[in-house]
């Protein structure tokens, strides 16, 4: 199960956090990687870690909010490996603050990266997957302000709610083409510099206090986000169509 030997896996936002964790997890299972980000030093470091662990891949600068850059990145992936099997649409930015008081321009920026970026990625990934008879796409949503409301993070959350909606509709469109599209809605991972850790650090919240927000009583581990992404990207998950897999230590179940 979860064999990615020789599979071509594209990951956006690979310079740190989930993207880096997932790159290493796919590489450990034999995938050939195409990594992008706008933070080039971090992206190159992820590639260095991948190759040091015996993996194969390349890193390329690509801003997912610019469709031409997404198209070029998918094109570079196919030029390098001849195909694309998995797309992990993970890149996102966060601008937190009181939902109704943030500058409206912040919403434009968030929509451009988090929502349109995922759309551009799916569009160009699917176009390529159709030429080889199938594939799998995993979109990173969030529980924040999409499944639950968070008064001081509503704009970010609205884009993630949009990702969930887009995931379902796109998944239905291509369900019969052997292309699976699903989303992950997570919260509470303790991964260096990830969006959650930046948030709790920014609010002066200790790890111990944050762990108390989750019924499981602890924060998430890197291997637990990797496992969820590997599952949705795997051949074994092809009957999952437009699913939103929630991995949040019980936060939303409560
Ligand atoms: N960490 C969590 O607990 C958590 C919770 C819910 C959702 N998520 C989602 O999971 C994904 C990864 O989270 P993370 O914590 O690793 O985030 P992160 O902020 O650590 O990493 C995101 C990466 O995306 C890159 N990026 C930003 N804008 C980009 C653009 N326009 N083009 C290309 N790359 C760009 C950043 O440079 C960064 O490397 C995000 O979509 C995030 O919203 C994370």
Structural notes for this entry:
It comes from Rhodoplanes roseus. GO terms for molecular function: oxidoreductase activity. Belongs to the short-chain dehydrogenases/reductases (SDR) family. This is Short-chain dehydrogenase. The protein has 254 residues and is α/β, with parallel strands linked by helices. The chain has a single domain (8-247), classed as 3-Layer(aba) Sandwich (Rossmann fold), CATH 3.40.50.720. The protein is built from eight helices and seven strands, in the order E-H-E-H-E-H-E-H-E-H-E-H-H-H-E. Strand 4 (86-89), helix 4 (104-132) and strand 5 (135-140) form a beta-alpha-beta unit. Helix 1 (17-28) crosses helix 8, helix 3 runs parallel beside helix 4 and helix 4 packs parallel to helix 5 (154-174). The mean pLDDT is 96.
What CATH architecture would you give?
Answer: 3-Layer(aba) Sandwich
Amount of helix:
40-55%
Structural class: alpha/beta
- Number of E strands: 7
* Distance between the amino and carboxyl termini: 31 Å
Bound molecules: nicotinamide-adenine-dinucleotide
Major sheet description:
7 strands, parallel
List the helices and strands in order: EHEHEHEHEHEHHHE
Q: How many domains comprise the coordinates?
A: 1
Briefly note the CATH topology name. Rossmann fold
Determine and state the CATH class: Alpha Beta
Family: Belongs to the short-chain dehydrogenases/reductases (SDR) family.
Keywords: Oxidoreductase
Protein name: Short-chain dehydrogenase
Organism: Rhodoplanes roseus
